[in-house]
Structure formats: structure tokens, C-alpha cells
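hey so i finally got around to running the thing on that chain from the lab meeting. sorry it took forever, my laptop kept dying and i had to restart like 3 times. anyway pasting the input first so we r on the same page abt which one it is
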Amino acid sequence: DSFAFANAKVKDLVIPDGVLEIGDAALQCGGLTTLIIPDSVVEIASNAIESTNTTTLFYYYSTNSKAYEYFTSNGFKCMPITEFKCGNGHKFERNDHETYYEMICSVCGGL
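ok and heres what got predicted. didnt touch it at all, straight out
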């Protein structure tokens, strides 16, 4: 939906699998540090995401995804979900059978 999280105080956001579209200004939240967008998203409005936080990590599942296309065309720092960092900065890998809801850092136990 448009403006879904606009101006919300959201730090980490995982868009659920099955969401098809991210509307206008839906993710314009200044404190965002982590955003994961699944491959199910097929449309992202041109002004959907605004991050003033230069350390925000944007994750995608596939280089064929709309998320990857959006992140790279808008100059956002992004990486594949297989190279996940938890909120404490520990890097770990996702197994192919894990969903993003099941990922837990083996160092600190966080997401």
C-alpha cells in the first residue's frame, strides 16, 4: 500500500513473501537499517523507498528480482540474502532451505 510505513520508526523490515507491490512512499522511514524484499514483489513505485540512513542494508534474493533492479538503479547499497548480517553486524549465510523468518545469527542469536 502507498504510505504503509511512511514516517514510521522502523529499524528492520522484512516484507513477507507473497506481497506483490510496494506503493508510493510505502517505505519512507528515516531510521531503517535493514530491508528485505522477497522475489514475489513484481512492482516497486519509483518513490517507494527513501532512506536517509547511509548504513541501511538492502537485501534481495535474486539478481532477476524487482528488488535488485530497484536497489541498483537507485544507488542503494545491496547484497544477496545469502550474505546476511544480523543487527549486531555479524555476517552469516542463509541455507537454501531457510526462509528469512528462520535465519538466526549463530554468534549472538539475533536477526
